[in-house]
Structures are given as C-alpha cells and as structure tokens.
Specification:
mainly alpha, 11 helices
C-alpha cells in the first residue's frame, strides 16, 4: 500500500494477510493515504481494512489532508472514514489550511467536515491560513462558510496575523 502496489494487496489478502496489521503503528490504509494511493485505499477497504485506525492519534484522513491528497480524502469518506477526527486538537481541515491545500479543504467540506473547528488555543483554519499566507485557503474556507473574523483565545484576529506577517493578499481577502 505504501508504494501503490494495488494488485499485490489483493494477492496478499487471498493468501490470508491481515489488511489491518500495522507497521510501527501505521496501517496499510494509513500508509496509502499518506502517499496518495487512492486505489489501494479502495482495495484495502474491500478486503476489510478499517479506514479510521489512527497512528498515534493521526487518522488516514488527517494524513491525506496534510499531504494534499484530495482524492484519497474522497475515497476514505466513501469508505466510511470520519472527516472530523482531530489529532491533538487539530482537524483535517485545520491541517489542510496550515499546509496550503485548498482543494483538500473544499473536498473535506463536501464530505461534511466542519470548517470552523479551532485548535486548542482557539486558532481556526482561517486563522492558520492567514498566519501562513495561504490566501487561496482563506478564500475557499470563506466560500465554505467559515467565519473569517474568529479570533484566537488571546484575542488575535486572522487579519492581525496576516498583517503582522506581511501577507497583503490575505489582508485583502479578509
């Protein structure tokens, strides 16, 4: 699954391999999501793999969002994965915003993910996109219904952080 060998998955399963066996915490579904191998995810699910098993709190959906694998997010959702499960307070949408993966944000939203869920300190996906200078993510989050004015628990607003970090495009969008 890690290297995208989908045919090998079926053969191994036919010979009795357990599709949920983890390698140092990472299941085959997790590794396929991490590397962007959507067809492997689909086959693993057909063979009985659990699409929600986390590796130390990180789910396959979270990993796909972090790495910009939108099609994997869609496939995981179709296979029953939870698109809102947070890792240490950060949701897949939050991580996609941090990493600048706007299309993943859109797909997560289409799959029912919340676009306003903040991190432990109250930072929302919009806040983090503003910090990082990801204007496209701010635009997509706003289109998906995110509140662009929600401040962090210390009162810092997204527009303040965008200005502080010199992200003019983000200021215009906000």
């Amino acid at each position: 699954a890690h290297n995208g060998h989908d045919k090998c998955i079926r053969i191994l399963h036919e010979f009795g391999a357990d599709v949920n066996t983890a390698d140092d915490g990472a299941t085959p579904v997790f590794m396929a999501a991490q590397e962007g191998h959507g067809e492997c995810i689909r086959i693993l699910h057909e063979c009985g793999a659990d699409v929600n098993t986390a590796d130390d709190g990180t789910t396959p959906v979270y990993m796909a969002a972090q790495n910009g694998h939108g099609e994997c997010i869609r496939i995981l959702h179709e296979c029953g994965a939870d698109v809102n499960t947070a890792d240490d307070g950060a949701t897949p949408v939050f991580m996609a915003a941090v990493e600048g993966h706007g299309e993943c944000i859109r797909i997560l939203h289409e799959c029912g993910a919340s676009v306003n869920t903040g991190w432990l300190n109250g930072a929302t996906p919009v806040f983090m996109a503003a910090v990082k200078g990801n204007g496209e993510c701010i635009r997509i989050l706003h289109e998906c219904g995110a509140d662009v004015n929600t401040a962090r628990s210390d009162g810092a607003a997204p527009v303040f952080k965008a200005a502080q970090n010199g992200h003019g495009e983000c200021i215009r969008i906000l």
